[in-house]
Amino acid sequence: MQDDGSYMWTDDWPVFFTQWGPGEPSNIKDEGCVSMHASRAFHGTWNDTKCDQAKPYVCKISPGLKPPPTPAPGDGKCLPYWIPYGRYCYFVYNQQQGVSWPDSLHYCQADKADLLSLHSRAEVEFIRNLNHTKYHNIWIGLTRDRNFGWGWTDKTSLGFLNWAAGEPNAAFHPGEAAEENCVEMFQDGNWNDNNCLQKRGFACRHRQYAGVIVGAVIGAILFCSLIAGVLFYVFSPAFTNPNFGGESDT
């Protein structure tokens, strides 16, 4: 375990997979290492435990394999409370009260950002470490496009996919007229298409600002956010899919 409470492999690979047992990790004081259960009931699942306990062990050699590179840090600035990663800044809303996908998009755009687009497994893991909530999955910026495929709201390329097993399934919900046109990320990092009006957390991303203009940008964003927030809740606009030019059931 690292100082921030997250876990890492000793060979520096990102944590792309976890198999915690029920109620684990328990985060009890001094339990900073991980063991694997051998009991029949929890066979193969993981448990955080004290590092000085004597246990059997397993070693692995991976000749020629190197961890994926961490993106080079940018030289720009982020908005207050946003976290830098590479040349972008990230914010995850993970409070108990969830919001719909269109409201999530509105909140991101009010900060001159966009709903999150994801382009690598390492970026997925970075976002998972920011999403500390146990209340919700989080909305990301993937939604149906005009060709009934999928596209990011920030118009970046769709070169990376991380769908959960059996997804996307474009299901209809009983008693609802809404098709699953928006995408959420599960806590394990996998994606699922869902009804855009479901209440979830969300994640935003913006490119870093040059240091000399970040103050002006922040001031403009705060002013625009105030005006946009008032107009949004006064007029309650209907959901318009930014990637889809046709009619929307949601």
Percent of residues in helices: 10-25%
| Beta-strand content | 15-25%
What's the total count of β strands? 10
Radius of gyration, CA atoms, in whole angstroms: 21 Å
Helix-strand topology string:
EEEEHEHEEEEEH
The largest β sheet comes out as: 8 strands, mixed
The CATH topology of the largest domain comes to Mannose-Binding Protein A, Chain A
The overall pLDDT, averaged over residues, is: 82
Low-confidence stretches: none
Number of helices: 3
CATH class of the largest domain: Alpha Beta
Give the overall silhouette. Answer: globular
Structural classification:
alpha+beta
Notes on the protein architecture:
InterPro entries: C-type_lectin-like, C-type_lectin-like/link_sf, C-type_lectin/snaclec_domain, C-type_lectin_CS, CTDL_fold. This is C-type lectin domain-containing protein. It comes from Dissostichus mawsoni (Antarctic cod). The chain has two domains: 67 residues, no CATH class; 153 residues, Roll (Mannose-Binding Protein A, Chain A), CATH 3.10.100.10. Helix content is 17%, strand content 18%. The radius of gyration is 21 Å and the shape is globular. It has three helices and ten strands. The strands form two sheets. Strands 3, 4, 5, 6, 7, 8, 9 and 10 form an eight-stranded mixed β-sheet that branches. It has a two-stranded antiparallel sheet with strand order 1-2. The mean pLDDT is 82. The chain starts with 32 loop residues before the first strand and ends in a 15-residue tail after the last helix. Strand 8 and strand 9 form a beta hairpin.
